[in-house]
């Protein structure tokens, strides 16, 4: 795509452009070569831009550097959109003869089902859905239009998946929740007969697990994005446009509000309610309800080991010290 085409498409202005170069790649400022375009999101990267080998940079203002520039309102967003334009996904349609599909499955238009995928009775698949090889779709699952399910995903029975959902490899949706009761000293399994509901425009990362509710629903609401290796237990409800970063764990029957961010390795105890617009910093444990519109955190950052041993020494002595102070 020519620089002039990029500028026209994104309502940009060409600056210091001597040649209408054909852009074939997108790279960072440090790794870009001729034929690549990069972007500057902050003036602190101007020195990097001066030394870049990129054929052009996207920027929000005219810069006094000898590099061709396209001036746009939001360079970073334009860069992301260019990735989609220059590197589109390969169009896949057709149903593999090596897949196993029950007789009463409803399949929409332009659907792709890859080799060795298994589709059970009563499944409904919307238009333009992509199901990659080695997936298992259990009975009575409903999948909305334009959803993409990558290889080796397992979706248990009765799950409802909305439109424009992305589920990455290895995810397991609607396995039984972790529930047992004791009878005569023995742990007995509690049968889970609820389901999982994934609303529109949700993304679920690789090897993430979302458990089936015991009798009701585990719900992931529209627009929420879930990273790899996240665990969401039975009967949970995760609100709209929420971000769950890698290794977050949410115990059963908890409710997470809208526009929440749980950073990496946050652990949430069972039956907790987290209000809207909350941010919880990495490695924090949430053991009680959190009020909306606040930032919470309890993770301790790494410090030099000998200093930490001294801290622990005094930490263990705190009860004794407090007793003396009284």
UniProtKB/TrEMBL annotation:
Coiled-coil spans in chain: none
UniProt keyword terms in alphabetical order: Acyltransferase, Lipid A biosynthesis, Lipid biosynthesis, Lipid metabolism, Repeat, Transferase
Main function: Catalyzes the N-acylation of UDP-3-O-acylglucosamine using 3-hydroxyacyl-ACP as the acyl donor. Is involved in the biosynthesis of lipid A, a phosphorylated glycolipid that anchors the lipopolysaccharide to the outer membrane of the cell.
Enzyme class: transferase
The keyword Transcription appears for this protein: no
PROSITE patterns: HEXAPEP_TRANSFERASES (PS00101)
Molecular functions (GO terms): N-acyltransferase activity; UDP-3-O-[(3R)-3-hydroxyacyl]-glucosamine N-acyltransferase activity
GO terms for cellular component: membrane
The family this protein is said to belong to: Belongs to the transferase hexapeptide repeat family. LpxD subfamily.
Stated name of the protein: UDP-3-O-acylglucosamine N-acyltransferase
GO biological process: lipid A biosynthetic process
Pathway it works in: Bacterial outer membrane biogenesis; LPS lipid A biosynthesis
Pfam families (alphabetical): Hexapep, LpxD
Catalyzed reactions: a UDP-3-O-[(3R)-3-hydroxyacyl]-alpha-D-glucosamine + a (3R)-hydroxyacyl-[ACP] = a UDP-2-N,3-O-bis[(3R)-3-hydroxyacyl]-alpha-D-glucosamine + holo-[ACP] + H(+)
Domain UDP-3-O-[3-hydroxymyristoyl] glucosamine N-acyltransferase non-repeat region: 20-85
Known partners and oligomeric status: Homotrimer.
NCBIfam families (UniProt xref): lipid_A_lpxD, PRK00892.1
Catalytic residues of the enzyme: 234 (proton acceptor)
């Amino acid at each position: 795509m020519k620089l002039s085409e990029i500028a026209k498409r994104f309502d940009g202005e060409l600056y210091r452009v001597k040649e209408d170069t054909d852009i074939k790649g997108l790279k960072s400022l440090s790794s870009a070569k001729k034929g690549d375009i990069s972007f500057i999101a902050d003036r602190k990267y101007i020195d990097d831009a001066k030394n870049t080998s990129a054929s052009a940079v996207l920027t929000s203002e005219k810069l006094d550097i000898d590099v061709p520039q396209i001036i746009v309102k939001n360079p970073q967003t334009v860069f992301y959109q260019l990735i989609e334009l220059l590197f589109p996904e390969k169009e896949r349609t057709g149903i593999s003869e090596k897949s196993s599909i029950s007789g009463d499955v409803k399949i929409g238009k332009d659907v792709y089902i890859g080799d060795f995928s298994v589709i059970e009775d009563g499944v409904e698949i919307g238009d333009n859905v992509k199901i990659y090889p080695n997936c298992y779709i259990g009975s009575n699952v409903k999948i909305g239009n334009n959803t993409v399910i990558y290889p080796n995903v397992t979706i248990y029975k009765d799950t409802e998946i909305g439109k424009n959902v992305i589920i990455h490899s290895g995810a397991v949706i609607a396995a039984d929740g972790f529930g047992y009761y004791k009878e005569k000293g023995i742990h007995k399994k509690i049968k889970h007969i609820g389901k999982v509901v994934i609303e529109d425009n949700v993304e679920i990362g690789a090897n993430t697990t979302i458990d089936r509710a015991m009798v009701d629903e585990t719900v992931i609401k529209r627009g929420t994005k879930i990273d790899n290796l996240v665990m969401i237990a039975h009967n949970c409800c995760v609100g709209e446009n929420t971000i769950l970063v890698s290794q977050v764990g949410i115990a059963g029957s908890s409710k997470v509000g809208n526009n929440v961010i749980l950073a990496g390795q946050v652990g949430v105890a069972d039956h907790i309610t987290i209000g809207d617009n909350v941010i919880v910093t990495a490695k924090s444990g949430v053991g009680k309800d959190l009020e909306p519109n606040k930032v919470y955190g309890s993770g301790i950052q790494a410090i030099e080991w000998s200093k930490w041993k001294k801290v622990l020494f005094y930490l263990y002595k705190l009860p004794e010290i407090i007793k003396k102070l009284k």
